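In this supplementary section we document a worked example of the pipeline. Step one takes a protein sequence of length 203 as its only input; no multiple sequence alignment statistics are reported here. Step two produces a three-dimensional model, which step three serialises into structure tokens for compact storage. The input and output of this example are shown verbatim.
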Amino acid sequence: MQRATQHRPLILASQSPRRRYLLEQAGLTFTVVPSSVDESGFAMTAPDDYVRQLAAAKANDVAAVHPDAWVIGADTIVLIDGTVLGKPDGRAEARAMLQRLSGRTHQVYTGYSIRCREKDRTFTDAVVTDVTFKRLCPEEIQWYIHTDEPFDKAGAYAIQGLGTFLVRRINGSYTNVVGLPVCEVIEVLIRAGAVGIDRGEPK
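The serialised model returned by step three reads:
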């Protein structure tokens, strides 16, 4: 199997198993070094600006320790009616979130930042995807919250897991909803020269 060529180390500044899986599926070789950024210190601004700020802070935090590497930072939020839905604390909060999302369209924003301190280059942007839920009956919500899947997920659902049955349609990047807009991230890595494509014939 051919893989992308990489001339510098690549680091994912996140402990999210979903982001790790997405980058592995894209054929990248990388290490995971979670950032120590305190997200509570960031005031909520416009959603796209907020996730860009957090992503940049995470990338900068890890790049300060690994200046020769390309570091990927990311942050994802779920937004409905101007309100950010975080990770539910328990079943009651998960139920309330799913009831709020039921039959409606919400937005998932992911900010990403790619930083190499040694080269003094940073690329930061945000992607938004519209997600429309089916109308959920109480029994469906009750079943889902007892799977325990919602409890480490923003908005109390995982589109790539059992929660796929909740989603009627999406408009935009699917991987963005999972936690990282892979198309955009790979495009930036190639443009920055962090990742190269071997255009030769497979051996």
